[in-house]
Design a protein that fits this description.
Blueprint: E1 5-13, E2 19-28, H1 30-52, E3 57-61, E4 66-69, H2 71-77, H3 81-84, H4 99-104, H5 115-118, E5 122-124, E6 130-139, E7 145-153
Antiparallel strand pairs: 1-2, 3-4, 3-7, 5-6, 6-7
């Protein structure tokens, strides 16, 4: 079984501030490494499950930033999946959604999407060729809200 350690090397200084050797410390980081590997595996599984859906889907945060999008969503807006995640929904494909409607749902003070107002909304694409329907609202462990968007061909 692999063991993971973090090694740190620091100079050993005498009382008169001369370097007179080295101090090497090892810290066991097995738990952190295993937790990271489990988290990466869970994220990969989430991505694979998300990509099974043939409808274009994206999850955005309350600021309009894309957290995750499936390959169908990326294909629909003709942007690589790597470029979509982390991007602002307002800036994708020359404003993929009716920005005026979406911005109405954003609270002026803190520029957050009002999750109470967006639930069940239909956001028409700028081109008018599909509707973006809000499906679900959910919160993560830190109580941040997220919105699942589903694109439906008109």
């Amino acid at each position: 079984d692999k063991q993971w350690f973090s090694m740190r090397i620091m100079p050993y200084r005498t009382t008169d501030n001369r370097i007179d050797g080295a101090v090497i410390t090892f810290v066991d980081i097995n738990e952190q490494k295993h937790a990271t590997q489990k988290m990466e595996g869970a994220w990969q599984l989430t991505r694979e499950i998300f990509d099974i859906n043939k409808n274009p889907l994206a999850v955005i945060d309350i600021y309009g930033n894309v957290i995750i999008a499936n390959t169908e969503f990326s294909s629909l807006i003709k942007i690589s999946p790597d470029s979509v995640e982390g991007a602002s929904l307002f800036k994708l494909k020359d404003n993929i959604v009716d920005v005026k409607l979406l911005k109405k749902l954003i609270k002026d003070k803190d520029k957050k999407i009002s999750t109470n107002d967006i639930k069940g909304q239909n956001l028409i694409s700028k081109d008018g060729d599909f509707t973006i329907r809000t499906q679900n609202l959910f919160k993560d462990l830190e109580d941040e809200s997220y919105i699942l968007l589903e694109c439906i061909k008109v």
